[in-house]
Amino acid sequence: MAELRPGDQAPPFRLRDQHGREVTSESLRGTRAVVYFFPKADTPG
Predict the structure, then answer these.
(1) Angle CA 7–31–37, to nearest 5
(2) Are strands 22-24 and 14-16 parallel, antiparallel or unpaired?
(3) Total-model pTM
């Protein structure tokens, strides 16, 4: 998969937020959003 750069459109995704609610790329369409991925606890990086 190619690396995303600032301003690129996000590929389709489906995930759960911190409250367990489902969020999809489609539900965010037309808004500005920051999606932050972090390493699993106790892993280097």
Answers:
(1) 60
(2) antiparallel
(3) 0.56
* pLDDT(2) > 70: yes
Half-sphere exposure of 31 (CA within 13 A, CB side): 9
Distance of CA 4 to CAs 7, 8, 10, 37, 39, Å?
8, 6, 8, 13, 18
Among the listed residues 10, 14, 15, the one whose alpha carbon sits nearest the alpha carbon of residue 33: 10
Extended beta strands in the chain, E state: 14-16, 22-24
Q: Across residues 14-27, what is the average pLDDT?
A: 92
Domain range summary for the chain, segments of one domain joined by +:
9-45
- Cα separation, 30 vs 9, in Å, equals 11
Residue 45's pLDDT is 59
